[in-house]
UniProtKB/TrEMBL annotation:
<feature type="transmembrane region" description="Helical">
    <location>
        <begin position="66"/>
        <end position="90"/>
    </location>
</feature>
<keyword id="KW-1133">Transmembrane helix</keyword>
<keyword id="KW-0472">Membrane</keyword>
<feature type="transmembrane region" description="Helical">
    <location>
        <begin position="102"/>
        <end position="124"/>
    </location>
</feature>
<feature type="transmembrane region" description="Helical">
    <location>
        <begin position="39"/>
        <end position="60"/>
    </location>
</feature>
<feature type="transmembrane region" description="Helical">
    <location>
        <begin position="6"/>
        <end position="27"/>
    </location>
</feature>
<protein>
    <recommendedName>
        <fullName>ATP synthase protein I</fullName>
    </recommendedName>
</protein>
<keyword id="KW-0812">Transmembrane</keyword>
Length: 132
């Protein structure tokens, strides 16, 4: 695919689907509940945010090329804001965040962050090579 946004979107969907399957496999192997702790919502929201943030950066790449790093950091802050708005109140109902609750949000968050970082790095390097 020559369009970085479409390629990234497809990679994100495939990678997070694989990680979600592995996550469920591990939970099942440990005989833990599979679909508690808003795990499905967490993967979906993280996927949407990862694609949306990359899309915004792709859209703004020419106008704000020198500020893309800061915009990326803003996207990461946005993801944490979503966590505190959507997930944190639910997770803190019992007074503590369990390891399973933490993993339900953190695993897709970190997976998306790693994919975003690697993809944006490659993409920005290719922009620099084509536009000296």
């Amino acid at each position: 695919m020559s369009n970085p946004f479409l390629s990234f979107s497809l990679k994100s969907i495939v990678l997070l689907t694989i990680v979600f399957s592995i996550h469920l496999f591990i939970l099942n192997s440990l005989e833990l509940p599979l679909f508690e702790n808003r795990i499905i919502l967490s993967y979906i929201i993280n996927l949407i945010l990862v694609i949306a943030i990359f899309g915004v950066l792709y859209y703004l790449k020419n106008k704000y090329k020198s500020q893309l790093g800061f915009l990326f950091l803003f996207g990461s802050a946005l993801k944490f804001a979503v966590f505190f708005i959507v997930f944190y109140p639910f997770y803190k109902l019992d007074g503590a965040i369990s390891k399973l609750e933490f993993a339900a949000f953190f695993v897709p968050y970190v997976t998306g962050l790693i994919l975003e970082t690697i993809s944006l790095s490659k993409w920005l390097n290719s922009i620099d090579e084509t536009n000296p």
